[in-house]
Amino acid sequence: MTTDPRARFPRSARVRSRVEYSRVFEGGRRLGDALLGLHWLPGDGEPRLGLAVSRKVDPRAVGRNRIKRVLRDDFRHLRLHLAPGDYVVVARPGAARAGNGQLRQAFQRLLRKAGALPGPARGGTMPAPPPSASPSDSLPDLPSG
């Protein structure tokens, strides 16, 4: 068994009861796009995830389970970076036709929009070269002709 907290998705990291879902739906912030809706109730403690994927989204259980599996996995990897609180993701019909990468992008975009996930680093980590150094400055002069 590994000790990496991202490698597991324990019961304590899940919104599980009807009362907990209702609390998030009634008191949380709401955001959405074509694929997913996000309800977020900021709180104390570790971030917790709840998922709602109805038969209206995909009548086949295998399709609904794929959506939940992708979102759970992404949440598991992001958990250490998320603001504390309860997150409930409601899948919309477009999610059934979306690929796994599109679902992850939509989920992360909503988390950033809500302010629960910091944005990606801009400009990379390497320092920019000095402005006076250009590649043509270091080339030797060649005779013409």
Automatic annotation (TrEMBL):
<dbReference type="InterPro" id="IPR000100">
    <property type="entry name" value="RNase_P"/>
</dbReference>
<keyword id="KW-0694">RNA-binding</keyword>
<dbReference type="Pfam" id="PF00825">
    <property type="entry name" value="Ribonuclease_P"/>
</dbReference>
<comment type="similarity">
    <text>Belongs to the RnpA family.</text>
</comment>
<comment type="subunit">
    <text>Consists of a catalytic RNA component (M1 or rnpB) and a protein subunit.</text>
</comment>
<comment type="function">
    <text>RNaseP catalyzes the removal of the 5'-leader sequence from pre-tRNA to produce the mature 5'-terminus. It can also cleave other RNA substrates such as 4.5S RNA. The protein component plays an auxiliary but essential role in vivo by binding to the 5'-leader sequence and broadening the substrate specificity of the ribozyme.</text>
</comment>
<dbReference type="GO" id="GO:0000049">
    <property type="term" value="F:tRNA binding"/>
</dbReference>
<keyword id="KW-0540">Nuclease</keyword>
<feature type="compositionally biased region" description="Low complexity">
    <location>
        <begin position="134"/>
        <end position="145"/>
    </location>
</feature>
<dbReference type="GO" id="GO:0004526">
    <property type="term" value="F:ribonuclease P activity"/>
</dbReference>
<dbReference type="InterPro" id="IPR020568">
    <property type="entry name" value="Ribosomal_Su5_D2-typ_SF"/>
</dbReference>
<keyword id="KW-0378">Hydrolase</keyword>
<keyword id="KW-0255">Endonuclease</keyword>
<dbReference type="GO" id="GO:0042781">
    <property type="term" value="F:3'-tRNA processing endoribonuclease activity"/>
</dbReference>
<keyword id="KW-0819">tRNA processing</keyword>
<dbReference type="GO" id="GO:0030677">
    <property type="term" value="C:ribonuclease P complex"/>
</dbReference>
<protein>
    <recommendedName>
        <fullName>Ribonuclease P protein component</fullName>
        <ecNumber>3.1.26.5</ecNumber>
    </recommendedName>
</protein>
<dbReference type="InterPro" id="IPR020539">
    <property type="entry name" value="RNase_P_CS"/>
</dbReference>
<dbReference type="InterPro" id="IPR014721">
    <property type="entry name" value="Ribsml_uS5_D2-typ_fold_subgr"/>
</dbReference>
<feature type="region of interest" description="Disordered">
    <location>
        <begin position="114"/>
        <end position="145"/>
    </location>
</feature>
<dbReference type="GO" id="GO:0001682">
    <property type="term" value="P:tRNA 5'-leader removal"/>
</dbReference>
